[in-house]
Amino acid sequence: MTAHILPRHNAMRRRRNRLMLPLTFLGLLVVGAGIFVAFVLWPTWPGAAISLEAPALPTTVAGVLFDVPPAAIRNAVQRHAGSNDRIDLAFMWPSLLPPPSDARTSNARTFNAKTSSAKISEQSRLAGGSGTAPATGARFFVTIAPLGPVLPPLERLRGIYPRYVEAEAMAGADGLAILPFRKGSPYAGEDLVYLSGTPEQFFARCTRDVEQVPGTCINERVIDAAEMTFRFPRAWLEDWRNVSAGFDRLMVQMHPQNNR
Prior knowledge:
Layout: H1 2-41, E1 57-61, E2 64-68, E3 82-83, E4 87-92, H2 113-126, E5 139-146, H3 153-160, E6 170-171, E7 176-180, E8 190-195, E9 203-207, E10 216-223, E11 226-233, H4 240-254
Parallel strand pairs: 1-3
Antiparallel strand pairs: 1-2, 4-5, 5-11, 6-7, 7-8, 8-9, 9-10, 10-11
């Protein structure tokens, strides 16, 4: 009796062992995948809060290194060293310093083009920006994000924007030309503002003043695979040379490796 039972028992155990092998292998795959995901997401895990007074953080966007002051970062989840998908920032004019912490707005939501336009309009109104040079203490906003599949700004200026503008430009402040985009185009309601004769030196896309809402402008610059977008009140075009030079200085502060 025992002689018959033992071989049968051993055979059943061998079958169980064979069945366990795929399950064990699957379990190891799941554990390995979990370790890989944890490693990839580790830089984004909540950690110790970084002081707003801390030195500039070394941060990369699209593989490009920037030195970013923590107090300028509007979204708390972006306030860490290492890689970021994008960074949303605020600075004061003309100091190019972050806003004081006691006046900083909530960082609870991601800063995007819509909220930036609303905030710029508010700051333009509070700073008295209505066709004059930027007021001291007024704010502008910067977004650093991957350029991705979007054409660089200069290529858009040369090959895309001319397809949608009106035939004639109007004269603007201090050598600028203002070329409205056609109705029904992707940029309807905006103007292309550029330095007449040498548009590569300075150009921006600007919304127009609508009733009580001041127009805003975006000026885009590329550093390797990253794009810096500067958002500022349209009224600042009256002093565009100083504004553009200030943006240049800020780029050098945040990306000292950039020699352009």
